[in-house]
Known about the structure:
heterodimer, A: 418 residues, alpha/beta, Phosphatase 2c, domain 1, 2 domains, six-stranded antiparallel sheet, B: 114 residues, five-stranded mixed sheet, 4 helices, 25% strand, globular
Amino acid sequence: MSETIFVSQTTQTSETILVIDDDTDILALLEMSLASDGFQVITASDGISGLQLAKTDQPDLILLDVMMPQMDGLQVIEKLKADTETNTIPVLWLTAKTQTEDKLRGLEIGGDDYITKPFDLREVTARINAVLGRTRPVKYINPLINAMGESFSEAGVAELGSHLQAAAEIQLKLLPEKPPVFNEFDFATMFRSSTSVSGDFYDFIPLSDTHLGVVLGDVKGHGIPAALLMVMIQTASRLLSNQSDSPATVLKRINTLLFHNTDLEQFATMVYGILEINTGRFTYANGGHCPPIHFITDSGDHQQVEESGNRVELLETGGMLIGAFDIATFSSDTCLLSPGDVLLLYTDGVTETEGQTPNNYYGEERLINCFSKNLTLSAESLCDVLQTDLMEFSGTTQLKDDRAVVVIKRTDTQATPT
Amino acid sequence: MQINLRNKGNVIILDIEGNLVGPNTIALKNIIDDQIRESGGEPVFMILNMERVQMMDSSGLGVIVAAYASIRRNNGRVVLLNIGGNIRSLIVMAKLVTIFDRYDTEAEAIASFL
């Protein structure tokens, strides 16, 4: 049995500092001090292993000792600057030498600042923060430079920005501008994107005068790749919904299409349902999506789930998430919306909204409570109440995930045909 | 996030610590991809020990779904060990209970490969 082989580097938001110094006391001191300031610290006691760590761990900043045996600091920085993988990492010199000549040479060759030993630990932190403050934007823009290659220029970036904006506009246009209008039903939607383009989507597809297709889903990930896949799913669902009366069949076909045309990791979760306007019957299939919630306001004989004193039905029937497995099978089910009932379809950006304490999420229970107390309100007001409750819970209007919500309320007072 | 890699016989065990959410999941993806590459097409037998994972989102689910698919392609198998309530409900919601075998002890998980 072989034991621990490696530990992956942190992927937390804190920044990583690599300290290269042959004096192990200094390494230990800086490691302790910088860690207590919230940095991730990695250390090397010679230039060669320091270079290696710089390449593999991609630190945000390197503290580099000038005087070291074998490979000294000046040789290390020359190699750092000659390598495209490391040449943008800022370097702060640690030097016992106080001669101006050394300082200048260090800066000329690529160091960003220097600290003279013996040093004050607060000064080290302050200088690190000063350098990181200058270099952070450079770090953020590096992936962009790499992706754009030769087209990286002021004009190129401006063009990319306008394309991104155009993509966001196209995507918004693909979403129904207004919810459909029927006498018997009240519709409202909420759509918010954490980035300029989103992986969440919803759609209303008129199938006949009395039948309305309702789609809500979430493509894994964010940004342009998710948005492109979302457009594909939306187009497919608009076309396929007219070819079959069975939501399960529609999901199965979308699944096959996605499976054969995307990477393994790309998938979506979605709900597709057909609402019969005359009867309130909602026939649906759920492809691995968080279950829509049916809030029951009368004492009809639906299958009921007791949840914090409110009667709700979770629409779980369906099959696996969409696009990952060729073998996925789906089934449909029906729920009956009686007058006054509310059906809520949403993406996990709602329930995964983070609270103000760690590992505290909005969750399905709070969502159910939020709606249950307000079922007499209109669909639009229910969206507003939810929006307010989410803001109250998270203490912020900033989004980490995309959010899409569709609220359907049956407003007619006629007796429901059975 | 921290990932520790162990081998027991021909079974690879990844002990995962931290939340499998958003960009955090890339580290896990890279490690799994490396193991598949190093196997040179031979079947990979892998246990993902999730005892210290409290939260997983769709990105995390994407990584384990992709791992399942690419390991399966070479007749290997990946199983989940010690998954907590949050992750269990995500897997149930995504209707993946039939895809991922789940075990509560390492011994059971290893025995499942014999």
